Amino acid sequence: MLQQVELYSALGKAEQNELFAKLKTAYAMLPQTTCTGCATCCKWGSPPAFFVEYLNMYKYVRDNMKDKWQELLRRSTEYYYLELVDTQQTCPFLGQDNKCSIYEVRPFSCRAYGLLSKEDFAIGDRGLKQLAKKFKEEYDITIPEEIVNYDLPWCGKVVSPRGYESKSTLAGLAAQIGALDYTFFPQELVDQEGTLLPYPVHLCNTVLGSGVRARKIKVMKQFCDNGNKEMLNGFIEKAIAFQF
Ligand code: SF4
Ligand code: SF4
């Protein structure tokens, strides 16, 4: 959401207001779980993170993953532009070993997945059918059926010492984390989930600037027409020069 200069000031503000400690406290209210580590949930896409969670992840990547910066920037840029048209896109933090490279700072969405019973679990309508229709009509871009129709299934393989959580508990915790974003953005925007975005969206706004969105259609179209990544590669080249 913010470019780099503003991001540095947001990081300072987060430290001053002890937002990272508050975030950690909120995360600690969730149970310690185990699962099979199949990574189905991580291959579905990049889950949304509140802005404060993005800052937390940004700081972790900056301080601990210098050797992975270029790969992360490349994968995040690809994901940002092609998530709707390329079925191969996964969360950019998923390693080849099926492990999460930022496990200790993964966002609430990842932590909460698998904690609801089958009856309570619902991804909700992501509006992809309507979006696919609009893209076809306005830009002649086809969003693959595989993407339009795929919904992340209920997991059922997460083991928690206290059983399933209630929807209200998880909604309350999400609201508590979202409220930390009031430090940076108007409450109305945060409450409408305007600061809850996939990590690659947050990162591309920081790295490639505010015009990033306007160029998305052209990149998608070029990829859809003939698998050409020329424009995309130009943005990737710019992105991988970024210093966290
Ligand atoms: S939470 Fe479920 S889907 Fe995700 S890695 Fe664990 S077992 Fe697989
Ligand atoms: S952040 Fe980690 S846990 Fe969450 S989807 Fe990505 S790889 Fe999976």
Question: What does this 3D model show about the protein?
Answer:
The chain has 244 residues and is mostly helical. The chain has one domain. 52% of the residues lie in helices and 2% in strands. The chain contains 13 helices and 2 strands. It has helices spanning 4-16, 19-28, 40-43, 51-64, 69-82, 108-112, 128-139, 145-149, 167-179, 187-191, 199-208, 216-226, 230-239; strands at 48-49, 197-198. Strands 1-2 form a two-stranded antiparallel sheet. Helix 5 crosses helix 11 (199-208) and helix 5 packs antiparallel against helix 13. The longest helix is centred in the first third of the chain and has 14 residues, at 51-64. The two termini are 15 Å apart. 28% of the residues are buried. The mean pLDDT is 94. The structure holds iron/sulfur cluster (2 copies).
Bound ligands, each once: iron/sulfur cluster
Give start-end ranges of low-pLDDT stretches. none
Extended strand count: 2
Average pLDDT for all residues? 94
Task: Please describe the biggest sheet, giving its number of strands, its sense, and whether it closes into a barrel.
Answer: 2 strands, antiparallel
Strand order of the main beta sheet, please?
Answer: 1-2
- The radius of gyration is 18 Å
What is the terminal-to-terminal distance? 15 Å
Specify the structural class.
mainly alpha
Number of domains: 1
Order of helices and strands: HHHEHHHHHHHEHHH
Question: Which bin fits the share of residues in helices?
Answer: 40-55%
Bulk shape: globular
Oligomer: single chain
Strand residue content: under 5%
Question: How many helices in DSSP terms?
Answer: 13
Pfam family, one: CxxCxxCC
Protein name: Zinc/iron-chelating domain-containing protein
InterPro entries: Puta_zinc/iron-chelating_dom (IPR005358)
